[in-house]
């Protein structure tokens, strides 16, 4: 049983990461290396979060064994008994043998650091490159990352020179390794506190607002107005890019050296644009280098990059618009069904996706009405209260975890109480809930933030390769300081607790932060207190108000711009609803017509076909073979006449030759045919 828990969590976390990546990425269209690198980054980060509670319980058991071995036996007359603590020291069900966890953490940590600092930035530039060959993409990626890598090498080289020149420093390799880890964790902790301060407030508030039907519907209208603007902008941008592609396609002919590059660009265009450009293409014309100025390969690379970006953005806005329409229609149905006396949920439109029959059997219209109209609002309110309580505990512990006498961090109090009774199940559950809540607050913010159109995690397989790789970079940089912050909150880190006890295996690979005392005793302790200011700023929506002042429309109830966008979105939803209703009414009429007159039309059609077959058989037996040959040749002659008319040169227009008599014009037309 010792390795079963570790093995089960490794398998479970893999499928969890695969499920989330399938929701946001597109396995069919995106490059396999992008999918594998992102999956590996997400998997390693989620694995650290799930395995760390097992490391804590194993460390507490090892401390118990050390205390038992160091405590002397008690003598009572002629009997010798062991210390009372030995009776409570039993092996947990999830115990991991010594030597496994240090190797496991070392492999996971350094792999994630290699991904976030070296491989993923290079793959980002490779994915956004518009090159037509692997060599060209690699060259572009190296050039773009030269400044990125050169900055770090310059800082690290300057530090090594300073250490080598200064005689007061006698650093060894382990200390240099610890300094590098401390620098990476410092950068991650700086970003971690910013994201954590937003998530601690926004997650409970979003669930509380989820119980407000009117609030969700108004916000959906607001999103519809913004998304329609973005959708129109994406369509206009795609049209402009396709116009440039059309000009390049017409200028570069089939035997031009750059024609392969143009064909590669055409393959990335939507199907309707490919067909349109194919019809207007005259491949029989040769190119003349002296006649026209042709685009260079560098300009084609830039155009290729723009095509990939514009097509991805256009496809994403189209899918998001359809999803938003379904959400708006459903919320409007909920608002209508709240006053229903029959207590059965009635949908305006049937779901376009096929639902599971087992789900339909249990989730009946009556059950759906009770859940959506009665139970769900109260459930969301209760969940919001629980999450808000957790947020308050986290904020309090972040401000007081440095205090060891007395212990003020509530998470440390819970773990120490469980450690006295060696209740490993409670220890693991408390550790898991704590780090899971911290991870949800941080990771959900990563999924929510949007940096213009460069970084945006869109569900339903609409996230581009650049955003997937960037999210993997963020996860790998945020997870190690998140785990160290968790160990500090629970006083499992010896740097915080100031106890000479056995550290966790995760802390042991990080090394002693005493090498940099100003970071261990200063930044790591006092910087997390900033989360209080960030939570207050998030509660009063200061960031939203600043973005609104800068011209980025945000959902604010007391803003006139928000009211205008809500009205605009409501009109857009109403228009789309009428359009879909007309489509369904037309389909219903066609279905009713087919059910009512379909059999009669089929019988009439069969009767007519049978009569035609009889007439054709009678004519074949009553005529001779030369006549049939003449008939076929007559049809062939008619086709030849049509082809000759199509190939005939047009006559010059002359007003005197116009004749109002249709008979004379008809005779003239026959004369032309005979001459041909």
Helix content: over 70%
Number of strand segments: 4
Mean pLDDT: 81
Taken in chain order, the helices and strands follow as HHEEHHHHHHHHHHHHEEHHHHHHHHH
* Beta-strand content bin: under 5%
Largest sheet: 2 strands, antiparallel
Which parts are unreliable, with pLDDT below 50 for 5 consecutive residues or more? Answer: 73-87, 618-676
Distance between the termini: 95 Å
Shape annotation: globular
Strand order of the largest sheet: 1-2
Global Rg: 36 Å
The DSSP helix count reads 23
- Helix vs. strand class: mainly alpha
Keywords: Coiled coil, Membrane, Transmembrane, Transmembrane helix
Transmembrane segments: 6-21, 33-52, 103-126, 146-165, 177-201, 378-396, 425-446, 466-489, 523-542
Main location: membrane
Biased composition (Basic and acidic residues): 582-617, 635-644, 666-676
Structure in words:
The protein has 676 residues and is mainly α. The chain has helices spanning 4-24, 32-70, 84-88, 100-128, 134-165, 173-210, 213-251, 259-268, 271-279, 297-337, 357-362, 365-400, 410-421, 424-448, 465-489, 494-497, 505-510, 517-526, 531-539, 542-549, 560-622, 625-647, 662-675; strands at residues 74-76, 79-81, 450-451, 455-456. The chain contains 23 helices and four strands. The strands form two sheets. A two-stranded antiparallel sheet has the order 1-2. Strands 3-4 form a two-stranded antiparallel ribbon. The radius of gyration is 36 Å and the shape is globular.
